[in-house]
UniProtKB/TrEMBL annotation:
Domain DNA fragmentation factor 45kDa middle: start-end pairs: 2-118
Keyword Protein transport: no
Low complexity: bias regions: 77-88
UniProt source species: Dryoscopus gambensis
Upper taxonomic lineage: Eukaryota, Metazoa, Chordata, Craniata, Vertebrata
Keywords from the UniProt entry: Coiled coil
Residue ranges of coiled coil: 8-42
Identification of the protein by name: DFFA factor
Region (Disordered) location: 64-88
Length: 172
């Protein structure tokens, strides 16, 4: 920064170089400073983003816990079959089932844990619980699988960025 602020003629005289070379030197130094500032701002923005994700996740878990905490048994859905057949059971809470039924893109509304539960669920049981056909329930599970995969890739990318960022801090 000091070398950039020194008048070009004084620096040229001190270094016994032409003013043109000093201009190139000062421009290069300014570019380095600008790049460092951009990197610093990018790191800050990423840290804010990660902090916001953590905050959002903790808020969502606190909101979901009071409703989910009292329920320890599994929901049983009556499929209307005779008593000799076993009823379809689902491990999904009423809240998740309601979101699956009511939302146009429920995979975007559910947290990753709920997405995993939807994926583990038997397609027939899920279709029965939602009152849908197996094809529609299968399509929902596929959308949930894609969303969960996308989220996992984002987490991996963030970890990669974090490790890359840590590696750059160690460089001189």
């Amino acid at each position: 920064k000091v070398l950039i602020d020194v008048p070009r003629s004084d620096l040229a005289e001190e270094l016994a170089q032409s003013e043109t070379k000093i201009q190139v030197l000062q421009d290069t130094l300014q570019q380095v400073l600008d790049r460092r500032e951009e990197e610093r701002q990018s790191r800050q923005l990423l840290e804010l983003y990660l902090e916001a994700l953590k905050t959002e996740a903790s808020i969502l878990s606190k909101v979901a816990e009071p409703e989910a905490a009292p329920r320890k048994e599994m929901d049983v859905v009556d499929t209307g079959t005779s008593s000799t057949d076993t009823s379809a059971t689902t491990a999904l809470s009423n809240q998740v089932l309601a979101a699956l039924k009511e939302k146009p893109a429920p995979e975007l509304c559910l947290d990753s844990r709920d997405l995993e539960l939807v994926l583990k669920e038997d397609t027939a049981a899920l279709a029965s619980a939602l009152g849908w056909d197996k094809q529609k329930a299968g399509a929902l599970q596929e959308a949930c699988d894609q969303e969960l995969s996308k989220r996992l890739k984002q987490v991996q990318t963030l970890h990669s960025l974090r490790s890359t960022s840590k590696g750059k801090k160690a460089l001189p």
